[in-house]
Specification:
Helices cover 39% and strands 18% of the residues. The chain is built from nine helices and ten strands. The protein has a ten-stranded mixed beta sheet, sandwiched between helices. Helix 1 packs antiparallel against helix 9. It is globular.
Length: 284
């Protein structure tokens, strides 16, 4: 009983200490550079399992500079995190929405007011642009993107071409690429986007977007997407984008990774919590 009691105390203290110390440790770069982002992330409360501040910490560990919180047709998670003061300056967190309808799914990046899901695609994109945001076609395979009007395609800012759904499912990857290539015939600046569609199971940043930015800020990130200065990455070492942008990203990836990733104090506290929990379970 004494061992279980001590293990329980250790577990509780490790969880509390880990929560307090688990803050993103990466400092943001400055000037013209390449950033890594994940623009399709779900958080709790809502469609994901992690709150925004834990997603931000995980983003830092996984080498991401920016994440967009895109819960389905609501943004309670981001509003709650900001109200509590738990969102740090870096990695950049962009309030967003996954506009979810029967005709299409669209990531509305950088919107503070929710877009009406009953709008047709072109009107929804116009509403996103009116808030200074960018519109990205989310996993635009045939069964989730029925609304493919020429007006909507011309207005899109980006399209997901890298998504975890294509692992082991080559036809889905072909559908994403076909949508991107077709849309580029009427929209040459369309940005290739890689996203994890993170809910809790698929690793954050498994598929990601590299952005060539002139300014390390939310505005700089949105501007890079509008100008098509992106490269979609994943799964694995797959890169999709204009040749010059792909080469810039490859050069960036060849450089040594900046410090601030990997094991932190919170990692060891988490391991302590797991060991303490194991003791409790074994002795139960």
């Amino acid at each position: 009983m004494t061992v279980r009691f001590i293990a329980g105390i250790v577990f509780a203290l490790a969880v509390m200490a880990g929560t307090l110390t688990d803050r993103p440790s990466k400092a943001g770069p400055v000037g013209t550079t390449v950033l890594a982002g994940d623009f399709h992330v779900h958080a709790a409360p809502g469609d994901g399992v992690l709150p925004v501040w834990e997603i931000q910490s995980e983003a830092a560990r996984r080498g991401l500079d920016v994440v967009a919180i895109t819960n389905h047709n609501q943004n309670a998670a981001t509003r709650m995190a900001r109200a509590l003061g738990f969102v740090d300056p870096y990695p950049i967190v962009i309030p967003s929405q996954e506009l979810t309808t029967s005709g299409f799914h669209m990531a509305a990046i950088g919107v503070s007011e929710m877009i009406d899901w009953r709008l047709p695609a072109s009107a929804a994109i116009a509403a996103i642009h009116a808030q200074g945001g960018v519109a990205i076609a989310a996993h635009p395979i045939q069964k989730s993107w029925v609304d493919v009007s020429a007006a909507a395609l011309r207005m899109l800012d980006g399209s997901e071409v890298s998504h975890p759904m294509i692992r082991g499912h080559a036809p889905l990857g072909a559908e994403l690429l076909a949508f991107f290539q077709h849309t580029r015939t009427v929209n040459p600046d369309l940005a290739p986007i890689g996203s994890s569609d993170f809910h809790g199971a698929t690793p954050l940043g498994l598929c990601r977007t590299y952005l060539i930015v002139d300014e390390v800020s939310r505005a700089g990130v949105l501007d890079a997407i509008r100008r098509g200065r992106t490269v979609a990455s994943g799964p694995g070492d797959r890169l999709v984008g204009d040749d010059a942008h792909v080469e810039a990203v490859r050069a960036h990836l060849r450089r040594p990774q900046a410090p601030g990733f990997g094991y932190t104090v919170s990692t060891w506290l988490a391991l302590g919590a797991i060991l303490a929990l194991g003791v409790i379970v074994v002795l139960d």
